């Protein structure tokens, strides 16, 4: 069991949700709710991994997966509604980031289920590789799209003059 995976997710996934929430213009309350659901999902996933009783293990996996479905719904419905009034660049970036989260995060519970903590249909190396690929796409891909976004980088407008340039005029 790689408990460090869960520690990593507990710190990194809220940052992804904060980024997409700020991009969408979501309220602090909505961002906080989504981060809270995220933390609950991760902790119940960790409990599923640590639990030795098989029935309890799958019960906590189910609870964690339900939390994930609710999180993804909240991301689509609430944040999607919030960003609908934004400019095209912001909406386009939001949609790309949202889709990365939807696709990659939906695979995580399946990876757990087929991995060594679940049904053990794949070995430890296969499981580790799958989680590594998911993490790279979910985090590095997300960051790359976000940083290349015109919505984040000022919409492609001219750079604002520095204080020295303004004083020289």
TrEMBL record:
SMART domains: Bac_rhodopsin
Keywords: Chromophore, Membrane, Photoreceptor protein, Receptor, Retinal protein, Sensory transduction, Transmembrane, Transmembrane helix
Bilayer topology annotation: Multi-pass membrane protein
Domain of life assignment: Archaea
Keyword flag NAD: no
Gene Ontology MF terms: monoatomic ion channel activity; photoreceptor activity
One Pfam short name: Bac_rhodopsin
Gene Ontology CC: membrane
Chief place of localization: membrane
One BP annotation, GO: phototransduction
Subcellular locations according to the entry: Membrane
Transmembrane segments: 6-24, 31-52, 58-79, 100-122, 128-147
Family: Belongs to the archaeal/bacterial/fungal opsin family.
Protein name in UniProt: Bacteriorhodopsin
The organism of origin for this protein: Haloquadratum walsbyi J07HQW1
Classification of source organism: Archaea, Methanobacteriati, Methanobacteriota, Stenosarchaea group, Halobacteria
């Amino acid at each position: 069991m790689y408990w460090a995976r869960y520690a990593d997710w507990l710190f990194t996934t809220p940052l992804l949700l904060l980024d997409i929430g700020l991009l969408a213009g979501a309220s602090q309350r909505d961002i906080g709710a989504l981060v809270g659901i995220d933390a609950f999902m991760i902790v119940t996933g960790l409990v599923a991994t640590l639990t030795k009783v098989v029935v309890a293990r799958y019960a906590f996996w189910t609870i964690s997966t339900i939390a994930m479905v609710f999180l993804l719904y909240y991301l689509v419905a609430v944040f999607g509604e919030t960003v609908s009034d934004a400019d095209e660049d912001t909406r386009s970036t939001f949609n790309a980031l949202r889709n990365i989260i939807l696709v990659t995060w939906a695979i995580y519970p399946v990876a757990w289920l087929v991995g060594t903590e679940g049904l053990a249909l794949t070995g430890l190396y296969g499981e580790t590789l799958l989680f590594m690929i998911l993490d790279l796409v979910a985090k590095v891909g997300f960051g790359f799209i976000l940083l290349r976004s015109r919505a984040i980088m000022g919409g492609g407008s001219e750079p604002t003059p520095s204080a020295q340039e303004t004083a020289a005029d």
